[in-house]
What does this fold into?
Amino acid sequence: MEKFLGIDKLQTLIRTIRMHGGVLASIRTLFRIDDLPIGTLIGEDKYGNKYYENPAYFYGRNRWVVYSEKVGLNYDGSQVPAEWFGWLHYKTDLPPHLDPTRPKYKWMSDHTPNLSGTSKAYMPYSTTRTKIEGWQPPK
It folds into this structure.
């Protein structure tokens, strides 16, 4: 009878709002990530990104990342470190903090996101003269 009247959907909505921390927090989450997924927290990286999983969702949509609050709405996929990228894309079933085979050497550099389109983007310059000069109209 609950399914017929839709009461189970209302219970799911109430559970979802409660898991996200209330109505205002749910609205803020919906504004930031356009979804209100329910899942278990698997881990967090050193940049503040949180990784979740829910096996009840479809394969390929059951793992996701909620980006750190400090980036606001300026998040993109390059802010996910390589080890968590592998877990998100099903290269491994073990999250990085539980994987004993993951190597960590002194010479490995830290993760940096793609800075294209920002003021910190790499801009190459040349010290040689250009072969073709731009045309300047006469004054």
Summary: Helices lie at 2-5, 7-19, 23-33, 82-88. Residues 82 and 108 are 12 Å apart (CA to CA). The mean pLDDT is 88.
